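User: two proteins, same treatment. go.

Assistant:
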Amino acid sequence: MTTDTQKVQMLAGRTIVTGVAGDDIHVMGIRLVDHALKSAGANVVSLGVMTPLSEFVEAAVETAADAVVLSSSNGHAAISCDGIRELFIEAGLGDILLYIGGNLYVGRSVTHEDVERQFKILGFDRVFEPNADLSGAMLLLAEDLDKRDRKGKS
């Protein structure tokens, strides 16, 4: 039986593009993600803050990335990420895994389920709350990559 630690170690050698989209200048969330990915042995291509969507696509194409992980804290990520999946499809990477997490929406009356639904419509595979467990997210990424790889081989 494979342990969670062994599953996360499956990220070793994977290439993951990370960054913060649009006009968001908040860097702490993505730095934590970068550190966790690097600790798991992943090759991290960190684009930093205020990154246009086209740069995520270009980096993913240039590095043959396995996934793209975005962090956002200004509450405007839906605007900044509008059209992201379409850009990856146009670049021939329609099946790349897209993850996003952080403070994705401003407002008290919105539930995480509402936010998740909105970001899945935008094309994200996983959507994480502000206080999401980073180790759990890493485990999900490893599992999702493994599933995608097995699906591609069948």
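Protein 2:
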Amino acid sequence: MDFKYLPEAVSLKTVNDFSEEEVKVAVWLCEGSKSPGPDGFNFNFIKSNWETLKEEIMEAVYAFEESGSFPKGCNALFIALIPKVKDPVMIDHFRPISLVGALYKIISKVLSCRMKVVMHLVIDDVQSAFMEDRGLLDSVFFLGLKLCLFI
């Protein structure tokens, strides 16, 4: 069986330096009004103050790019319990949410956008996980189709 792989030119693009445009796109892809991270800021604040904040955000992104790790505390998160019902008394009456810092979300979004572009090159046609427009049972259908062709 031949495994799919990334051509060298495509592979090199996945490790290019982060661009300001790429980071800005990632910020705009993040839901703006969701709960803030531990730093207290949500993405609406970042979007509305992008011109003021972009230099510091890019400096942090470049620091991650250089070191491959986040400064201490940047990937820390808090778990908050949000009541699902009035007067909750049991643990299942709450919905847990993670309050993750914006920098962590931005870098994760940039990396996931890069991966989204190349996933189809490395994921086999019969595999349905990770692929847009494929259902969980599509792989069963494709496998059955391949078996029928060989019988």
